[in-house]
């Protein structure tokens, strides 16, 4: 990869991480929460959100960040539907999580920590 391509990828990664850090991610489970916490991103599990126990504040920025597989897509759709009704004043984004996973060549959230660290250390 050319130096300019690496620098651009790093810039895009930083922008996505900064945006995710300004809100709260909804992920599938505890391993995903840990991976994001290690990157400075707050997260709630899908189960917590679906049970109405997340304590999400009105107006919060929410990012649905589920795995890119059939079950992850199903959970993303269900979480989006639940959050749209229960937290109507919140902004909900489904694309940032997918962009992050693709940038890291990952299919699951728990796989992103290592690629993120490598991209950040390359430059």
How would you describe the overall organization of this protein?
By secondary structure, the protein is of the alpha/beta class. Helices cover 55% and strands 12% of the residues. It contains six helices and four strands, in the order αβαβαβαβαα. Helix 1 crosses helix 6. The protein is elongated, with a radius of gyration of 14 Å.
Measured distance between first and last alpha carbons: 12 Å
Count of helical regions: 6
Largest sheet: 4 strands, parallel
How does the overall form come out from the CA principal axes?
A: elongated
Category by helix and strand content: alpha/beta
Strand content: 5-15%
What quaternary form is this? single chain
Low-confidence stretches: none
Order of helices and strands: HEHEHEHEHH
Mean pLDDT: 91
Based on CA atoms alone, the radius of gyration comes out at 14 Å
How many E strands?
4
Instruction: Kindly state the percentage of residues in helix.
Output: 55-70%
Main sheet strand line-up: 2-1-3-4
Keywords:
123 residues, alpha/beta, 4-stranded parallel sheet, 4 strands, 12% strand
Topology:
Layout: H1 3-21, E1 24-27, H2 30-37, E2 42-45, H3 46-50, E3 61-64, H4 70-86, E4 91-93, H5 95-103, H6 113-122
Helix pairs in contact: 1-5, 1-6
